[in-house]
Amino acid sequence: MRCIFGFIRKKKIREMGSPGPTGHLSDLYELKAGNLRAFDLADLRHATNDFSRLLKIGEGGFGAVYKAFLRPAGESRRITVAVKRLNSTSLQGHKQWLTEVLCLGVVDHPNLVKLIGYCAVDGHDDIQRLLVYEFMPNKSLEEHLFNIAFPALSWERRLKIARGVAEGLRYLHEGLEVQVIYRDFKPSNILLDKDFNPKLSDFGLARQGPLDGRSHVTTAIVGTRGYAAPDYIRSGHLTVKSDVWSFGVVLYEILTGRRAMEKKREKSEQKLLDWVKKFPLESSKFRAIMDPRLGDQFPISGARLIATLANSCLSKNPRDRPSMCEVVEALDQAILVSAEDGYSLR
Fold first, then answer.
1. Short-list 46, 113, 119, CA closest to 85
2. CA separation (Å) from 26 to 8, 50, 198?
3. Quick one: which of 52, 48, 45, 106 has its CA closest to 82?
4. pTM of the entire structure?
5. Which of 88, 263, 268, 340 measures 20 to 30 Å from 46, CA to CA?
6. What is the pLDDT of residues 115-126, one digit of tens each?
7. CA-to-CA distance for 154 and 162, rounded, in angstroms?
8. Of the residues 134, 164, 184, the one at which a domain ends
9. Is 110 a domain residue?
10. Are 185 and 169 in contact (CB under 8 A)?
11. The domain containing residue 129 runs over which residues?
């Protein structure tokens, strides 16, 4: 398998267009992204059997994702990867592709999916945008929470997943020279490796945080209904606390096994956050919110701590929401309490 190695040079970044005022992010990319591979389209066609439907493993707003098999240069064994193929040549689709390359070319964290390389073809009759990622064999958190064909996640695994993605968000918010707001936190974007370690994927809507001491970024409202913070929807003001709200919604999905927006009847939906209000935290009714597939295999004290954390993430005033560093600390406390009740992450 032949690969083209090298940087996407800053000149090339400018030619491809910018996803917004992200000059600092592109500067950081120039320093850190030397290990990304530029793949030939022919190689990716071969690796996916010409994008065979039999190898298709997912479909999203960006495009289709395929399981693929590559043989790195100088190695005899093949590796399994995931190839995402843009399904549109629109400007918005191109910007999302570029944002993924810029973000994932910069980040390095065990709870963020690893980008191996990219492919960009700008022929007169053939415009292609593709990304090549590490393969995540256990699919997404969405599948394990809401698809009954999958075994129920244990309490320990749910805590492990929650803490892992919290670490990933903390790294984006606090661990880089620039601040990155993920902006599309939801179970379908949380992928699981062979050991159920979680990794955030799909950075097409990510945005660099405010610069020059500003409190927020003003931007078009994008994301997924049910997960976007109400203050962001109302004003277009985006901050890291927008991600914290989304994290609170997903915490309740992990507890309840219910979707953020659940269809009850035709043209009728029930919001998870409205439903859980019927079961006050300190009342005897609280246990009724828990995912029935857990049975009694969870510590009620640990569950209450998770619900308390979710509620703090869902504070109406963004300033009252915890930072992701504080979220991780609260999750560690819930993990400790759960271990005392016999539910250890080992």
1. 119
2. 10, 32, 26
3. 48
4. 0.89
5. 88
6. 999 998 877 667
7. 12
8. 134
9. yes
10. yes
11. 3-134
